[in-house]
């Protein structure tokens, strides 16, 4: 049952989940806030693929870039308009705000576009398969893995070797101290949101690529995945998010094979049970961040 | 001295009197002068109010964000419906039902109580370890709990009819049963807040470390209040089921959670009056927008159907409230006759701005 194509598909799922959770944790690291509106950024990306792809003749690559830019812009705007205003009040207020932003964006899509699923035009590469050592592997799974690797390398170079990246990491470790050393808080937070939006945009390409359609509630599933993965991996570190995403993707694939058919419907409930158990066993997640600081507004 | 105590007593309990009289007046006026649509809206308002107060009991007093209560509302709704339906209807509504569930049938009130009890028992079994968590981990784990409950409701065909509609529940909930239930829970929630348990819980909310240094077992007080809140939500769910008469598991998921949360946050989580005022305000706003939405759709004023406008405006309003008044409109105060309160209450009121940090 465990064949090469199963393994590659599981790794592809794992790397997609790693990307999804990375986008959530970038913000969590700095603001200590789980962004419930994160899934809606993926939805925005999906709708841009639909609208731009359907109404213009430009190559798909540029359509994808437009979708990523749109997700970045929306992420930036939500921070500017909503989160920045509530940031200094309380964590509960911040979480409820992000839930409200999520509801707002989702229903705006419902209102402006349509409650029905829309078919998204995709390039042929998303539906072809390649043969590798006798296994038949969908091309988009290979693409997912390659993109994830490139993004992870790029991001770790950015975080390790640029001034911006050092400021971001410092802010995630100890925001108060970072501010005292002269790093502007608003700028760092804005950039974190833009980066999170960029990752959400990339995720939207592959997430939409799986079903070739987009609905207003398309962001819900990736949001839940990001929750599980970050909690499993350790919400205080970026490495934790990546590890958590991979672990979750692999676990999800294996549960699909190992669980008896009659229990398969409860797969999601099982996954969340695992989350609760891990939280009880290791509240910090599998990989412990170096600092678990109190929240700073 | 005795007179003073009496006056203080009146002042403390005046919240209950003010709010119940307000609810009774609204119910009477609606019943006498309102059309059938208004009666339904007001009935739904009181049912929602019960769930909002259930959330207030836990979230308001403990300061922990609670997502799961709407799930317990769902449990109460399904259990009480299964209990109150006749075997013939049950056989049609839930074709795959377990034989032992098929033949039980209680009248309305016992069904409600069974629904409440099941919600309480489930909360009691699963929630203790969750109460050790705070802040983000608490928020994520209770969110996970909501998803687990929903996932079970959606997939347990033999009890809930799966994702399909459960229909044929008898309409027992009238405006008067709803208002009676709301007043009962109001008294209960208020007394809970003022009780020793409520006091200890609020102390843990205002200063975690000081409270545990005083010897308060924070996990335990959170645990009991979570169970109480879940029970109230289950009770509200039972009333909801017998008001709406046919529903799916989606009725007890994110949209309803947003609804209930908005009502609580707009009024202010930290007082029972806040829960009541918020519920009234949000319901009024929502029904106003919905009327506009329906008017546009019915008269074909626009070339497309307007869907989701209510939620968009409500979410915007919620964000605005959170920006300008994060403790809600009442800011944790209770509606009272006299501003002069007893020493105990004055002390409490002075610390009721913890949401501001």
Describe this structure in words.
The complex is a heterodimer of chains A (297) and B (357). By secondary structure, chain A is mostly helical. Chain A folds into 2 domains: 22-217, no CATH class; 219-290, no CATH class. Helices cover 71% and strands 4% of the residues of chain A. Chain A contains 11 helices and 4 strands. In chain A, strand 2 and strand 3 form a beta hairpin. The N and C termini of chain A lie far apart (51 Å). Residues 293-297 of chain A have low confidence and may be disordered. The model of chain B is unreliable at 341-357 (pLDDT under 50). Chain B is an all-alpha fold and 357 residues long. Chain B has a single domain (2-356), classed as ABC transporter involved in vitamin B12 uptake, BtuC. Chain B has helices spanning 2-33, 36-62, 69-84, 87-93, 99-102, 108-126, 135-155, 157-160, 175-194, 196-206, 208-213, 218-244, 254-267, 272-298, 309-324, 343-350. Chain B has 16 helices and no strands. Helices cover 73% and strands 0% of the residues of chain B.
